[in-house]
């Protein structure tokens, strides 16, 4: 006879051991059953699972991963309502190509995006400039300062009741922001400390239930991020700024890159679409074309 299982959600996974909660908030330590490992089904933080509790001090088992509503590879999380892309106005220097890659990955996974521009205290002008660049990107950019709490109320309101994952460069202030938003004490780190240890302050994804019925996910930052490889002609679909001009170009389909009489490029020239956002799109397009061409090598 099959053992009775309980429904649960994965909060954390470290070295093959998972922490999960059931509906009553009881915590379990679990490992994935062999059949999941054989099927290469690796549980992700955010996964809904069926579990068998351990007896006494023994760990229990994850027997099944329920179908995912959505998932990301980097960071490796599942069943997310919103990806909060965190970028610092300074320290570290904002990497907007990485912001665009994160946005692309979230959009391809069908997840909503919220842009949070942190450390506005260090360079208010740069923060305002980043917010302006993303005005048409369906990312509702907010400028804030996790250190003083400025701008946090507006962000908290928008995320209330939703499962949101913070993602972005290492040191941008993701953990600091979560602490300030929800009165928590996650470990945060200075840059000097990072150099000393040669790694991120946050090393694992972690899902935390918060007031208002939502859940927040802290994730380790990265310094490098690649997107999955797909047909480059689909790249433009993840730039909401281009949508109003779709179908109006001379060539069909159009990459909105170097083609003559391109409606998107004309919109850029007239200042209706941000030129730097379009410039980074061209850069990612070149990269995707190369990787698509070389995909069988
Ligand atoms: N001046 C200023 N510093 C901040 C602000 N927010 C965070 N910091 C500092 O930035 C540093 C990095 O913050 P963390 O929260 O550890 O950054 P993180 O994004 O979680 O980094 P990883 O876990 O490595 O991915 C810490 O020294 C924070 O005190 C801010 O709004 N202004
Ligand atoms: Mg962190
Ligand atoms: Zn075009």
Count the beta strands: 13
> Which ligands does the model contain, each kind named once?
guanosine-5'-triphosphate, magnesium ion, zinc ion
Number of domains: 3
Q: What proportion of the residues is helical, as a percent range?
A: 25-40%
Structural summary, described in words:
With 297 residues, this protein is of the alpha/beta class. It folds into 3 domains: 6-65, Beta Barrel (OB fold (Dihydrolipoamide Acetyltransferase, E2P)); 71-218, P-loop containing nucleotide triphosphate hydrolases (Rossmann fold); 232-293, Ribonucleotide Reductase Protein R1, domain 1. It is 26% helix and 22% strand. It has 8 helices and 13 strands. Strands 10-9-8-11-13-12 form a 6-stranded mixed β-sheet, sandwiched between helices. Helix 2 crosses helix 8 (275-293). The longest helix has 19 residues, at 275-293. The termini are far apart. It binds guanosine-5'-triphosphate, magnesium ion (MG) and zinc ion. Magnesium ion is lined by residues 174-175, 201-202, 218. Magnesium ion (MG) binds at residues 174-175, 201-202, 218.
Topology:
Elements lengths: L5 E9 L2 E6 L4 E6 L1 H5 L9 E5 L7 E6 L5 E2 L4 E2 L3 E7 L7 H13 L3 E7 L5 H10 L8 E2 L8 H8 L3 E6 L5 H9 L8 H7 L8 E4 L5 E4 L44 H7 L5 H19 L4
Parallel strand pairs: 3-5, 8-9, 8-11, 9-10, 11-13
Antiparallel strand pairs: 1-2, 1-4, 2-3, 4-5, 6-7, 12-13
Bound molecules: guanosine-5'-triphosphate, magnesium ion and zinc ion.
The site of zinc ion has 7 residues, from helix 7.
